[in-house]
Write a structure and sequence with these properties.
- It is a single chain.
- Strand 6 (about 200-205), helix 9 and strand 7 (about 225-230) form a beta-alpha-beta unit.
- The chain has twelve helices and seven strands.
- The protein has about 270 residues and is an alpha/beta fold.
- Strands 1-3-2-4-5-6-7 form a seven-stranded mixed beta sheet, sandwiched between helices.
- The longest helix has 17 residues, at about 120-135.
Length: about 270
């Protein structure tokens, strides 16, 4: 998979890995890169079958496969311990990673995630599936911002959104890749497994998120042995893009708090 390593390069630097949502492209994290690079080694990547990481995503693809692919990439980079920050699908990858490779994660941040798919999220996903299948890629891409951003932000950033629409259509991950990745996400149910997650985990929500109702993050945090919840009031599903001035300090505070020493829960596993 395609990746970039930014920020600190010294051998003892703490590593933060950024994992994007359904779009899969590491470019999602642009508003966070400069801030994180001041303090950490930062790994940002395009998930298999998205962005520069070309490839075919097969039918039957699972979230566990995405976690294994990320673990393999980190092994190639000789990274044996890291913080993982994941948005939606990227956060679900993080939860599967925490279950399959518990010693790998020093901490985990799940942004607008869940333990089991909510009916509202399923409704939004089904609308997007139908748009893609019945109206095509351009209609899918045109509708996507409605699920990600608040209405006032959409209105104020129309020129930017028009540019993004052209870019996303030109670099679309492919219909089958997207549908197989989306089905893997919709099929994931971690409700019974979360008690086994030993990594300190921040479930980070936004109150005006249309796609993932914020109580899903409260529920997620309550099911985790070392779970915490943080919430922004504004920004929509992609609040890291729409309001990085609020988002970035909350994220940085969490990462610095969990960077001095391995957590007691994690240390008990060695």
């Amino acid at each position: 998979m395609y990746y970039k390593v930014l920020g600190k390069q010294n051998a003892d630097a703490q590593t933060v890995v950024l994992s994007s949502g359904l779009g899969g492209s590491g470019g999602f994290w642009q508003p966070q890169l400069a801030m994180l690079a001041e303090h950490f080694r930062v790994v940002v990547y395009d998930q298999h079958g998205t962005g520069v990481s070309q490839g075919t995503v097969p039918a039957g693809y699972r979230m566990e496969d995405m976690a294994d692919e990320l673990a393999g990439m980190l092994n190639e980079l000789d990274i044996s311990r890291c913080h993982l920050v994941g948005h939606a699908l990227g956060g679900i990858i993080g939860l599967h990673l925490a279950l399959r490779y518990p010693a790998l994660l020093q901490s985990l941040v799940v942004i607008n995630g869940w333990s089991k798919l909510d009916s509202q999220t399923r409704r939004c996903f089904e609308v997007r599936q139908n748009l893609l299948l019945n109206s095509g890629v351009d209609a899918y891409v045109q509708a996507q911002p409605l699920f990600l951003y608040p209405a006032d932000w959409l209105s104020e950033n129309d020129a930017l959104l028009q540019e993004e629409r052209q870019h996303q259509v030109a670099h679309f991950q492919g219909m089958e890749n997207l549908l197989h990745r989306l089905q893997a996400l919709m099929d994931s149910d971690l409700t019974a497994s979360l008690v086994q997650v030993i990594a300190p985990t921040l479930a980070f929500s936004c109150k005006d998120d249309l796609l993932v109702p914020w109580p899903r993050s409260v529920d997620l945090a309550s099911r985790l042995p070392h779970g915490e919840h943080a919430q922004m009031l504004y920004g929509g599903h992609a609040m890291s893009v729409t309001d990085p001035e609020t988002f970035n300090p909350i994220l940085l505070d969490w990462l610095l708090r969990h960077s001095s020493q391995p957590s007691a829960a994690a240390a008990s596993q060695y």
